Amino acid sequence: MDLIFLIIIGGLWGSFANVCIVRLPEDKGVVSGRSNCPKCKKQINWYDNIPIISYFILNGKCRKCKKPISFQYVVVELLSIVSFVTIYLIYGFSLTTLLLIILSLGFIIIFFIDLKHFIIPDVITFPLMALGFIKSFIPNLDPIFPYYVLSLIGGVFGYGIIWGIIFFYKQVKKKEGMGLGDAKLLA
Ligand SMILES: [Zn+2]
Questions:
Q1: Domain-located, residue 130
Q2: CA end-to-end span of the chain, whole Å?
Q3: Structural domain includes residue 182
Q4: Ligand 1 centre and the CA of 64: distance in Å?
Q5: Could you give the number of structural domains in the chain?
Q6: Residue 35 Cα, ligand 1 centroid: separation in angstroms?
Q7: What does the pLDDT look like over 38-54, one tens digit per residue?
């Protein structure tokens, strides 16, 4: 029963991740506005927007314009479900699970945006950083999460390591290898 619930929640959040992946690089809001077909721009009916299932019912094509729907939508939804379920199976019904689920969703969104646009949006990394620091003050959290001093040191080092790589790469190759987005992500 728990697992069915998690699969549904994972699929829905995966669907939200898809919205973020498409809209964040275009600086569009992710909360408002119904989903549109990226090809014909027509609104997608709710029953054609069910995570994973709709893709197969529609045979991978938009109901209105018949143009192919990117299989990436399904991959993102599946990844979210697998992450949610795996984390739950390890950490059970806990705050640790919630925090790791948020982190994994952030990673999925970042991965697919970075893959296509070579950027890592601050709107994802900054809240994750803040949450990563705040959670250090929550008592009795799983020991995988460090004390706040260690959390801070880890954040600074994470940023510093990538910043250092970017700096030296620039000196040697005279071009950019990584961006500061990578530094913020590691932080
Ligand atoms: Zn369409």
A1: no
A2: 37
A3: no
A4: 5
A5: 1
A6: 11
A7: 899 999 999 999 999 99
